[in-house]
Amino acid sequence: MKLEKINHRYTEFFNMLPEDWKEIISPIWDKIKNTATIYAILDKGSISASGIIFTEKLLEMTDFELKNGQSLFDKGYAYIGFLWVAENRRNEQLGSKWLSLLKKQDVKQGFWLTIEEAGLKKFYEKNSFQTIAESEDKENIEWLCVYEPEIRE
Fold first, then answer.
1. Euclidean distance between the first and final Cα of the chain, in Å?
2. In a domain, 100, yes or no
3. Which of 7, 49, 71, 73 gives 20 to 30 Å between its CA and that of 88?
């Protein structure tokens, strides 16, 4: 199992995403595609799990992300967004496998992300991410999670 870059298949990936995610990423893709990479686990050519790695500030960042995440970009951390597992491939640990393969690509690379669901917080913490910030807006709560590589330059 390996991660493959699939930027050329972005439409197929976007069509797998929930509507609210599509509404965020689809309109801005042309503006950010040169600083973003879609990585996927493929099975017989079909996307089983995929996500986007951003290396520069996103066009659509919340105030919470700007306040807490910009310094991580400045330190060279990449942002993980839109991690998605195909519905027919759920419960196969593919999200964890995707993260593990990503971390193995460059053992010195740090990553960060934001989440809005408590269940996802547990998932990322299980996958070696630490929650380092929580938004003050309790109605639209967000957490910022960071993966610190063991080896850092």
1. 28
2. yes
3. 7
pTM score, whole prediction: 0.92
Cβ distance 136 to 116 under 8 Å? no
128, part of any domain:
yes
Helices 118-126 & 94-105 angle (0-180, nearest 10) = 50
Sign of the torsion formed by the C-alpha atoms of 127, 143, 25 and 85:
positive
Please write the tens of the pLDDT for every residue from 21-64.
999 999 999 999 999 999 999 999 999 999 999 988 776 777 88
| CATH value at residue 23 | 3.40.630.30
What residues does 114 pair with on adjacent strands?
144
Q: Residue 83, CB half-sphere, CA atoms under 13 Å: how many?
A: 21
> Which domain covers residue 111, as residue numbers?
3-147
